[in-house]
Amino acid sequence: MEQPTGWRKSRYSSNNTACVEVGALADGAAVRDTKDRAAGFFVADRGQWSAFVSAVKAGRFER
To answer: pLDDT by residue (tens digit) across 18-58?
Structure first.
């Protein structure tokens, strides 16, 4: 399995305890919990990741 590279934490996480990191893959992205990196990560292909990012930007996940 391809290993993600360039892990980065969301700039919206700041000092929040509910943080995630995103890593780059050749055809998408991987996401993991910063508090439990050993638990692994989930993978989204390029289309799935693009749809997710668009939904976040559109406010579909706002509380």
So the answer is: 788 999 999 999 999 988 999 999 999 999 999 999 998 99
What global pTM score does this model have?
Answer: 0.78
Tokens 């991987």 belong to 30
The residue type found at 33 is D
* DSSP SS3 for 8: strand
Beta carbons of 26 and 2 less than 8 angstroms apart: yes
Strand order in the sheet with 42-45: 5-9, 20-25, 28-33, 42-45
The token duo for 60 is 């579909």
Of the candidates 21, 28, 61, the residue with the CA atom closest to the CA atom of residue 43 = 28
